[in-house]
Amino acid sequence: MPWLQLKIVSTREQTEQIENALLANNAASVTLQDNADQPIFEPGLGETPLWDQVRITGLFDAEINTEQTLERIQKKLKTPLSEFYWEQLEDKDWEREWMSNYHAICCGERLWICPSWQEPPEPQKVNLMLDPGLAFGTGTHPTTFLCMQWIDQQDFTGLDVVDYGCGSGILGIATLLLGAKQVMGVDIDPQALLATVENAKRNHLPDDAMPVFLPSRSPKAQVDVMLANILAGPLAELAPKLSEMTKVGGKICLSGILSIQAQSVMKAYEPWFSFDPIAEKEEWVRLTAIKIRS
After folding, report:
1. What residues contact 68, with CB distance under 8 A and at least 6 apart?
2. What is the separation, in whole angstroms, between the first and last Cα of the chain?
3. Distance (Å, whole) CA 184 – CA 169
4. d(CA 213, CA 1)
């Protein structure tokens, strides 16, 4: 199905009004993007920050009358649009387009992440077959890659693991393929829990190898390894809980952290953990540590 995009440059203050006008005039979707190279690294809980200059894109059926649609949108605005244009969006099978650009990733000496629709480049290695669906975690983001590199270097034989914020299940499944006894997957998103279960099956793991839970329903347990690839703010807030779930002598691997946030996250965990040197990739970091006291 062909589409048209109406692209509008707006200020932060006008954005909500324009978004509402687009949706009221049958926009199939509205996308907000930074129009002034102004990064927002991590919002506070409950915050939805916007950039000073916002590029708004409304997606419309290509059969619409653009002049009439634009006139109706303008009538709903207090201030007329000053910078906008229509653009035809190429008709593609977007799922296949994404799949064609996602390739196998080598994460170390033993471990590969392989799209479920491709043959592994090195079948003799440990190949994690992945279809992330709607959940976070493909290995392409620096935070996931850093965690997978660390996992590749560890001995998980017979260990119990928690993958907190499991997303696609990629981290926990990797530890199971490398010998972990059992992994508990925890995530606030039910879609992530479904993706984790499906990816565990895709890798021919036993049904009970990676049970999944919402945080409020996760069992109280102490494990040998704690994995958490989330964001700096939640990681700092979760420090007492994740520490309590990790055995003395156990290891923790934290990511989803910008380099400028590393010290604040470490400070939250230092009452219980002794940290290794920081690993960094493209301004993101991985923090690993051993629990030294309860």
Report:
1. none
2. 59
3. 10
4. 39
Give the 3-state secondary structure of residue 240.
helix
Closest CA to 136 of 64, 65, 60, 188: 188
Ordered strands of the 105-106 beta sheet: 105-106, 111-115, 126-130
Which run of H or of E encompasses 161? strand 160-164
Helices (H), 211-251: 232-237, 239-244
Tokens of 226: 């704690």
Nearest by Cα to 58 from 35, 34, 33: 33
Q: Closest Cα to residue 127, out of 116, 138, 140, 137?
A: 116
Let me know if domain 133-291 sits in CATH 3.40.50.150.
Answer: yes
- The C-alpha atoms of residue 256 and residue 157 are separated, in whole angstroms, by 26
Written as six digits, the tokens of 105 are 């990733």
Annotated domain spans of the chain: 3-91, 133-291
| Cβ–Cβ under 8 Å, residues 54 and 33 | yes
In CATH terms, the fold of domain 3-91 is Alpha-Beta Plaits (3.30.70)
pLDDT in tens, the chain (294 residues): 678 999 999 988 889 999 999 999 999 999 988 866 545 455 554 445 556 788 999 999 988 999 999 999 999 998 888 889 998 876 655 445 455 556 788 999 999 999 878 888 899 999 999 876 555 566 678 999 999 999 999 999 999 999 999 999 999 999 999 999 999 999 999 999 999 999 999 999 998 999 999 999 999 889 999 999 999 999 999 999 999 999 999 999 999 999 999 999 999 999 999 999 999 999 999 999 999 999
Q: Tokens in use for 219?
A: 């069992």
Among candidate residues 292, 248, 240, the one with its CA nearest the CA of residue 268: 240
